[in-house]
Amino acid sequence: MLTLHDPADVRQIAATYETHTPADVTAACERAAGGAELWGRTPGPRRAAVLHAAAALLEQRADAIAADITREEGKLVADARAETLRAAAVLRFHAGEAERTHGEAGDAGDPGTLAYTRRRPLGVVALVTPWNFPIAIPAWKLAPALAAGNAVVLKPSTRAPGGALALVAALRDAGLPEGVVEVVIGGADVGTTLADDARVAALSFTGSNAVGDAVRERVQARGARFQGELGGNNPLVVLADADPARAAAIAVSGAFGAAGQKCTATRRVIVEQRLYEPLLAAMVAEVDRLKTGPGLDAASHVPPLVDKEAQSEVLEAIEQALGAGAEAVAGGRAPDGELQHGAFVLPTVLAQAGPGMTVVDDEVFGPVCAVLPVGGVDEAIEQANATPYGLSASIVTNDLRGAFRFVERIDAGMVHVNRPTPGADPHMPFGGVKGSAGSGYREQGRAALEFFSQSQTVYVQHDLP
Prior knowledge:
Elements: E1 2-5, E2 13-17, H1 22-41, H2 44-60, H3 62-73, H4 77-99, E3 105-107, E4 113-121, E5 124-128, H5 136-147, E6 151-155, H6 162-173, E7 181-183, H7 188-196, E8 200-206, H8 209-221, E9 225-229, E10 234-238, H9 244-256, E11 266-272, H10 273-288, H11 308-323, E12 327-330, E13 348-351, H12 358-361, E14 368-374, H13 377-384, E15 392-396, H14 400-409, E16 414-417, H15 448-451, E17 453-461
Parallel strand pairs: 5-6, 5-8, 6-7, 8-9, 10-11, 10-15, 11-14, 13-14, 15-16
Antiparallel strand pairs: 1-2, 3-4, 4-17, 12-13
Helix pairs in contact: 1-7, 2-4, 2-6, 3-4, 4-5, 9-10
């Protein structure tokens, strides 16, 4: 039995779930193999109808799902509701993809012969999803997998599986046939059994680099496909011509939204020296307006971290930075009073930060932002690229030439200009480069279908003798 505690007050139990064994995983893969036969033969427009109907159910249930997500994962209830509606939008986008014909047609080299291509499902695919977007990330993996005609075995994070279960419930209530989506909940033994099952033709993973690299090795060793969305250490570059108040608003939004628990959250602010002190002051003023509190409190801006373990990891990284010479000009600790019973960390801005600090060199998954001064745009880009990751990056400037120099030279899969580092649309590809990319496959948008399907070329001789 899995017992989860409310991140806003760990004295309270938020939810309990039955867990699964490796034998349960094997049985789930067997049922999915049967489901793949039926779903793979289902015409695209009928698959689309199920996705559209499930989206409508998510929209109807958004308030209840959001409240459950907040109690379990901790995020602001408004964010949880927006995430649920985003999941519905993802289902609708891929319903449209299921209705469209994908392929090419033309004359073959031989007379009287038509050549064309079509996309075919892979069969059974596995999805391993994280806790920080407990319904949106399962949706943006499940929707293209189902649109392409696959059956799915889904393993959500044990830290917050409720959103994934709500999504699957909507799909089943919308008419998804039995066996097309199976859910397994458990730890590493469940994950490795799923990765090793020969019926799983592909596995899509979102999570840490250490776990993702291990899963990739297992999956690819037996010739199956792997898709990975891994870590990020996302930079926001601020040039000297930027308005410090606007730049601060962008930085604070990107760093502290969802308590920094986004793979695309702003981790480092790299600012030209002339604007360093004005930007720091503006960021502190922005942070002073933020209220740290429970996700169910409509007045809160910064919710708790997912659990006490996550809180300890973030506070340890802050302490390491302070010991190495950084200065906390905002936050830098857990709050006192009633909030001490939750997994809270005050939004933290670190000045005098530099290499050798975990908050600069690695991904710290919480409300922590390191601010680093540089001499100019070239040094800023060099510092922004000085990381093994390459997920998202942003620049704040009024200089069009500087902005496009940044776009051309930054090592990131997603680039924003005068916007925070988080943010992605369902119809656009999502993914990183370098250590942020577990493979060459992108998520979201039409690109998502490439991972979950394979191309088949067909020749038909119609001019028979």
